[in-house]
Each structure stands twice: as C-alpha cells, then as structure tokens.
C-alpha cells in the first residue's frame, strides 16, 4: 500500500489530535517498510534511578504502530490497539532520545500487525521489542 501521510503530516495530526503528548513524541521518517518514531526524553519520562520508564517506552511503541498504520490509510483517529506485547531487554542509555523502528508486517482491511525495535539514539543494541495488532475501523 502506498504512503498517504509523510512524517510532517503525521506530526501535524498528532499535535492536533493528541496535544497531551506535547513535543515528547514525533515521527522522524516514513518509508515503504514502516517508520521511525522518536521519544524526546525529558524528566517526565524517567523513573527512580534515572532510567526511562516502561510506560514511556510502551507509549513510543504504540505511537509508532499507530502512525505506521495512519501513514498508509490516512488520518483515521479511531484505529485502536487490540493486542500488544513488549519485551524490555536492557537499560536505555541515559540522556539520549529513544528511536522506535516500526515495521508493518500486515495491513489488511480490518487488522494491522507490526513489530517495533526501540533503541537509544546512536546505539545498535535494542532496549525493547514490541509486537502489536491494531483494529482498523470500517472505511467508507
């Protein structure tokens, strides 16, 4: 399926529809395979001990899949997560943004399936891996 929303359009959609995320989450790049989403880490994303919280990483993975789906079907606000799993593999590097590389595995009429690898910026080893399924509302 062709790309119908590039990074700029997705970021504008997020700002308009989800103002609560502020400037924390954004889309860096959209490709034929998926996209790269960013968590601009600040003190609000940290847990005791100074590491990035699991809920912040989960939100990044969820946002990446949501935006990957929208990049193909357009601004359908009611696409929702129906299944999610996440594996936390190592502590993120302190003081660096997190990047989520999302790959769409299947985009059907009613379901989308994707994998996400989350890395600390400029680090090769993933800090988390997620698999998610999204339900796509009827179009038309």
TrEMBL record:
Please give the Gene3D superfamilies that the UniProt record associates with this protein. Hotdog Thioesterase (3.10.129.10)
InterPro entries recorded for this chain?
HotDog_dom_sf (IPR029069), PAAI_dom (IPR003736), Thioestr_dom (IPR006683)
User: Keywords assigned by UniProt?
Assistant: Hydrolase
> What GO MF terms are annotated?
acyl-CoA hydrolase activity
Q: Where is the Thioesterase domain?
A: 49-123
Could you identify this protein by its name?
Uncharacterized domain 1-containing protein
């Amino acid at each position: 399926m062709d790309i119908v929303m590039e990074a700029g359009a997705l970021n504008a959609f997020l700002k308009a529809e989800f103002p609560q995320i502020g400037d924390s989450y954004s889309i860096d790049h959209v490709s034929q395979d998926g996209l790269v989403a960013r968590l601009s880490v600040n003190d609000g994303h940290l847990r005791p001990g100074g590491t990035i919280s699991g809920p912040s990483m989960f939100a990044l993975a969820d946002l990446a899949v949501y935006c990957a789906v929208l990049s193909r079907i357009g601004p359908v606000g009611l696409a929702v997560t129906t299944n999610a799993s996440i594996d936390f593999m190592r502590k993120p590097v302190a003081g660096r943004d997190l990047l989520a590389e999302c790959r769409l595995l299947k985009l059907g009429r009613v379901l989308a399936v994707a994998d996400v690898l989350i890395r600390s910026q400029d680090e090769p080893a993933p800090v988390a891996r997620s698999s998610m399924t999204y339900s796509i509302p009827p179009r038309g």
